[in-house]
């Protein structure tokens, strides 16, 4: 039981008012903070800025942001029809929370100068706190031809979608209100340090010699393993309410929603991967075609594997296969040739299909991962990082590091060492964020709320009036069997 679970209405309203006042204070501070140096474009040397690069990065940032609604549709379509609205709400929450935390301290923690004594694990929020010193002048250490402000908003889009991904594992039983606390904590303690280690020039993992083009570790592995820990922490969906038929239903709530979500994710992924080139050029084109190649080969491989496993040709299976391929190529998109990209898609599909089979046979007895986040993001992200260490080549990108396939086995060894440290690190800090959140406000909803469905119990609205429709259908069936016409209201 969390401290705030039994708070009186007066205390709850006081907390809400305090949050609103705190937000206002932050925004006022951002308004009156005087930047140091010519960052706004006035009397600044902006000759390095390339308008084509700016245009591409603006488009990329916008379509990466579109991926978050895509996650909403994908997850709500996969879940139970009584939790559609709640799942959408949960996946949208980072869109409200992360930009504020990112502007306040997140961007500095991720891309500020490494703190002395931190060994390149996290940056200092001082330089970029409240977006101080973030303006029109480029920062060559990150992207030399676009404004630093544009780089910051592009990276913010990555920071938004990452917690949205992990929420899918517990969407059917988590308290939406408590997620507001967890998302902020997890962003500061897990995502930002990981982004610093992988992408900052003095970050620990980057200095160690392990490369990640577009977020295989930062986004997908972090969200995938965090999703597994969250599912373990909250326990299975089945509880004292297990007698209800809603917990036995395996069928997705809305398959067209899954397909729509996949389409939005597929579209956004080209900004996700090709945008990570941080310019419009040949590397962008390489990442673009590699993304398409891996998605195509993984989708086809998944369909064939589904057939071997005795499944019919399912639209949801095709969608999962596509997403698995997109995830697997993410860390390698700008470091491998197109043949390797096709191969990575197939490898990702084989590994994730095997992981899904193991979860269905054994894992689901102990853990409920509602939207198979761990299989898709955790396993595929790990496969993608290993494949990057195998197939990366300097022949397509001078900033890459040749992989084991090209004679550099040390790169593979370093990557495996990083993975062995990274997974426990993400897991421990995620568990800590869950524990702290749970002490403040309970993470798991009650059995009564589970039975009613989170749409009604938490939000007071349904995605569709499906229960009313069922009444009409039952009445029509009953009247048909009795040989009497249904009433006008029932017929309607």
Describe this structure in words.
- The protein is mostly helical and 492 residues long.
- The protein has two domains: 49-454, Ammonium transporter fold (Orthogonal Bundle), CATH 1.10.3430; 462-491.
- Helix content is 65%, strand content 0%.
- It contains 17 helices and no strands.
- Helix 4 packs parallel to helix 7.
- The radius of gyration is 24 Å and the shape is globular.
- The two termini are 46 Å apart.
- Mean pLDDT is 88; it is low at 239-249 and 485-492.
Beta-strand portion reads under 5%
Arithmetic mean of pLDDT? 88
Rg (CA only): 24 Å
Distance between the termini: 46 Å
CATH-assigned homologous superfamily of the largest domain: Ammonium transporter AmtB like domains
* Alpha plus pi helix count: 17
Biggest sheet features = none
Number of strand elements: 0
Spans of at least 5 consecutive residues with low confidence? 239-249, 485-492
The percentage helix is: 55-70%
Structural class: mainly alpha
Order of helices and strands: HHHHHHHHHHHHHHHHH
Indicate the CATH architecture of the largest domain: Orthogonal Bundle
Note the overall shape: globular
Family: Belongs to the ammonia transporter channel (TC 1.A.11.2) family.
Domain Ammonium transporter AmtB-like: 55-463
GO molecular function, one term: ammonium channel activity
Subcellular location: Cell membrane; Membrane
């Amino acid at each position: 039981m969390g401290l705030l679970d039994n708070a009186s209405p007066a205390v709850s309203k006081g907390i809400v008012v305090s949050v609103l006042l705190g937000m206002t204070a932050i925004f006022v501070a951002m308004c009156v903070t005087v930047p140091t140096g010519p960052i706004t474009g006035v009397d600044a040397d902006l000759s390095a800025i390339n308008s084509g690069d700016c245009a591409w990065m603006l488009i990329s940032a916008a379509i990466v942001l579109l991926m978050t609604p895509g996650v909403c549709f994908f997850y709500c379509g996969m879940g139970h029809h009584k939790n559609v609205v709640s799942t959408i709400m949960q996946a949208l929450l980072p869109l409200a929370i992360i930009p504020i935390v990112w502007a306040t301290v997140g961007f500095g923690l991720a891309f500020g100068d490494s703190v002395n004594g931190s060994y390149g694990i996290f940056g200092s929020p001082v330089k970029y706190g409240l977006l101080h010193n973030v303006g029109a002048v480029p920062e060559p250490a990150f992207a030399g031809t676009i404004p630093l402000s544009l780089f910051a908003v592009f990276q913010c889009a990555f920071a938004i979608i990452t917690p949205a991904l992990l929420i899918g594992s517990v969407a059917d039983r988590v308290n939406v209100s408590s997620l507001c606390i967890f998302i902020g904590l997890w962003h500061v303690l897990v995502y930002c340090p990981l982004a610093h280690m992988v992408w900052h020039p003095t970050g620990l993992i980057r200095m160690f010699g392990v490369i990640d083009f577009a977020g295989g570790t930062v986004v997908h592995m972090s969200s995938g393993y965090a999703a597994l820990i969250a599912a373990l922490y909250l326990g299975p969906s089945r509880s004292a309410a297990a007698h209800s038929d809603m917990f036995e239903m395996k069928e997705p709530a809305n398959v067209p929603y899954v397909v729509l979500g996949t389409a939005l994710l597929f579209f956004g992924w080209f900004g996700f991967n090709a945008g990570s080139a941080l310019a419009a050029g040949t590397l962008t084109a390489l990442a673009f075609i590699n993304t398409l190649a891996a998605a195509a080969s993984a989708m086809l491989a998944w369909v064939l594997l589904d057939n071997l496993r005795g499944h019919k040709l399912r639209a949801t299976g095709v969608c999962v296969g596509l997403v698995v391929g997109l995830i697997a190529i993410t860390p390698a998109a700008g470091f491998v040739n197109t043949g390797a990209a096709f191969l990575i898609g197939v490898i990702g599909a084989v590994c994730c299909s095997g992981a899904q089979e193991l979860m269905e046979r054994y894992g689901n007895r102990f853990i409920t991962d509602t939207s198979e986040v761990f299989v898709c993001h955790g396993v595929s992200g790990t496969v993608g990082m290993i494949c990057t260490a195998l197939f990366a080549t300097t022949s397509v990108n001078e900033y890459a590091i040749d992989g084991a396939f090209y004679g550099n086995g040390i790169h593979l060894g370093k990557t495996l060492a990083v993975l062995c440290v990274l997974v426990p690190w993400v897991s421990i800090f995620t568990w800590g964020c869950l524990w702290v959140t749970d002490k403040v406000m309970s993470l798991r909803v009650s059995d009564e709320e589970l039975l009613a469905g989170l749409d009604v119990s938490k939000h007071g609205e349904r995605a569709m009036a499906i229960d009313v429709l069922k009444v009409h259908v039952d009445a029509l069936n009953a009247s048909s069997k009795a040989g009497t016409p249904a009433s006008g209201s029932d017929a309607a």
